[in-house]
Amino acid sequence: MNTQPHNFGHDETRGFPQQWTQSQPQPQQQTAGGYQQSYNHISNPYTTQQPAEPLPKQEEEKSTQERTIGLVPAIALALVAAIGSGAITGVYVSKQSSVGNSRSSVVETLKQPVGNNGNAEDAGGVQAVASAVLPTVVSIQVLTRSESSEGSGSIISPDGYVLTNNHVVESAGQETAEITVTMNDGSTHSARFIAGDVNTDVAVIKIEGVADLPTISLGDSDGLAVGQQVVAIGSPLGLSSTVTSGIVSALNRPVRAGGGSSGETSLIDAIQTDAAINPGNSGGPLVDMSGALIGINSVIASNSVTPDSAGSIGLGFAIPANFARRVAQQLIERGQATQPMIGIQLSQNPRIHGAEIVEVSPNGPGDKAGLNSGEIVVGMNGRIIDSADALIAAVRSSDFGEKISLEVTDSEGNNSRMVEVTLTTE
Predict the structure, then answer these.
(1) Sequential DSSP letters for 182-203
(2) Is position 282 annotated as part of the catalytic site?
(3) Which GO terms are recorded in the biological process aspect for this UniProt protein (predicted)?
(4) From 11, 159, 197, 201, active-site residue
(5) Is 201 considered catalytic here?
(6) Which of helix, strand or coil describes residue 367?
(7) What is the DSSP letter of 151?
(8) Over the stretch 290-313, which tens digit does the pLDDT of each residue have?
(9) Of 19-33, 102-116, 322-336, which range is least confident?
(10) Of 94, 287, 377, 394, which has the fewest Cβ atoms less than 10 A away?
């Protein structure tokens, strides 16, 4: 039995980063299992990697990260970051003038109340949505000495801040890289890496030397309903400004993926959609029918055994916009992100239907609420918790300092009781 400290998550959906690769074959990556047995892999459909000048490979030490509920995110999310999982770096970080004012402006934008997408279904058809949103979506190309990759992103401020997936740009923080952003009108600009978070797969970059850019409207992902129409926009397989449509297939779907350049994994409480998402779409927006951002396309499930041959089978997953906004705000303000925590360690025992507590941190929120080692969390705020990932994802989606209600049982699944826990503050 693996015992790993966890952040709360939901159903297990695991896989590998879907990568569309034009280079020499990559070592095969095994998925941690599909959402259902028929879906073997979850992939990162949003990045494309191409060969660059060969470099000696540096062995990366892979530290074993404990998963503490509310501490470290989960592990094996299949990222759609082949086109964009490359390397966004600080090549252009030399010019820092007016960065403070710029950051304050975009942070205030992220803090503003989200739009009400209650009438989103009546706002217009896919054509109208595409016309409104396309100018706010960019293609991201990252070039390092060892590889080139590509993904997508959404402009969130007039002066060029762009919201995308961490797996699209993570190598930028590891080695020198050139980041080029292509606008919807075909113009190109240099960009620099601001910050990214591997645990949530959210990152921010900034386009250099621009002003008065069109920005995407921020929607309310908490108001989504299953069956609601949505539109996905991005650069699948390098084809920029590609528009697909579908519906919200499910909500609160815990999805874990890994396989980016860092080798680390992410866990998200995802929006599931049947809108076609393919390698290169990573980081692009999922919008409602009013054109408001309600998710960041990030992961796909695939029947393919290898990431480079994976494609859409109608099982795509997006990071909820409200959650991404909070993480982006932290990244811009502090350069790193933290998540609410309970202060417990969870077991990854597949035989247990729920999240088994193996350790409670002294004086942490869980300890103060009366949680005990050996107990099993089977519900949170009325939501079924059937795995450690489910609890981690659910907790991450909560607010700092929020009071949550957990249903716990003893180690045999009996003697159910309710426990109220106040999550850690930011």
Answers:
(1) E-TTS-EEEEEEEEEETTTTEE
(2) yes
(3) proteolysis
(4) 201
(5) yes
(6) helix
(7) E
(8) 999 999 999 988 665 555 545 667
(9) 19-33
(10) 94
Which residue out of 85, 167, 221, 290 is catalytically annotated? 167
Dmax (CA) of the chain:
63
Which pLDDT does position 72 carry in this prediction? Answer: 28
Tell which residue, 224, 3, 267, 278, has the closest CA to residue 116.
224
Domains of the chain: 12-58+71-336 (2.40.10.120), 344-422 (2.30.42.10)
pLDDT of residue 220: 97
Query: In sequence order, what DSSP letters do the residues of 36-50 get, joined into one string?
Result: STT--EEE-BTEEEE
Which of 83, 65, 82 is closest to 74 using CA atoms? 65
Is 312 among the residues known to form the active site?
Answer: no
- The predicted pLDDT at position 170 comes to 87
Instruction: Report the C-alpha dihedral over residues 31, 33, 34, 37, rounded to 10 degrees.
Output: 130
Structure tokens at 316: 């795509």
pTM of the model: 0.75
Q: Is 227 exposed, middle or buried (0-12, 13-18, 19+ CB in 10 A)?
A: exposed
Q: How many residues does the chain have?
A: 426
Mutual angle of helices 321-334 and 99-111, in 10-degree steps: 160
> How far is Cα 110 from Cα 325, in angstroms, rounded to an integer?
6
